[in-house]
Amino acid sequence: MQGIGRDDTDLRVTVETDIATAGPDSGVQRAADAAAASARALSAAGYPPRHLSVTSTESGELVLVARLGPKPGAPVQPPPALPPAPTREASRAQTVGRLAIGLALGLVLGFLGLPRLELPAFTPPAVEPAPVPTAFDSRPQLAQDVPAATNVPAAISPAFLLPTVEPATPIPAATATPTPLFANELTRPIAGWPNDPNGTAWFGGSDYRLFARDSTHFVATGVPLPHPVQDVKLVAQFHKTGGPAGGGYGLIVRDQSPSSERDGRNQAGEYLVLEVGDNGEIGIWQRDQTRWMDVLPWQRSEAVNHDRVPNIISVTTHGETMELQVNSQIVAQVTYDQLPASGGVGIFVGGDLNEVALDWLRIDDAN
Known about the structure:
By secondary structure, this protein is mostly beta strands.
């Protein structure tokens, strides 16, 4: 009896021959013959045996064991060799290398930027926008004025299609410059103004002349206005034309008498005079009927031009306060309550044969 079996590494063939009835010599011979026959058969089948062994059992049976080699011509594949275990130094080098590669890759990605994945954007259905009124249309947009939108998804609220437009707030028209209370040229006579070339005040053709012919008298003339004024601004230009040095000229405010009483001769009244002198001085006084009361006595001012050089005088009143400017420079600000805050206005020239020309005059409401 013969059998063939395979283990993990070799093909094993077992040949068993029954020689119980034969003698010892004949049994050995038969075993050798069987072994030779088995070797020839295996070789013919392509499995030459590498080793044959014959053993005898107690019952006299012979057992033939053959170890077979690989089939001729088949490639011999040795078992894969296991890689050698890395040393501690090699393992540490591998770890440092991996860290260096990761760090370098991170720096490159941080500098160049991570690649971006462009995805197709979702395109909503086209909606025809509602017309938007221009900035010049102040009318509110009504729903019936808006054309119906097309291709509008049902989920969109109509509130997005019909925006509410608030009417534009109308811009108030620019306030016109108020008409001055007085801005007439002084080249011809004006009704209500004293005009006597032989007197103290008259129109000289290009200006208004004032002359204190009596050395002990001043000249005060009124400017006719529709009503007494409280907050007012007077601006005038004067220049001296004759007389000794030391004469003064200026403006009258808060006059408690009608303008007709300021006729250039009357020396009485209740009013304030803001004055400059041709020697470079300024001063403020109250006329109390027939006497003068100091509000701001004469004092020097660098703003005043001397002698016959013109000076522009500006007086502004607000209630009880007054401001005096000479040639666009503020030279005095006072608060005075000894006279009512409203009254008439006029022109003043000091005495001592002083001759002065008023080049122009403007009066504005200061409210």
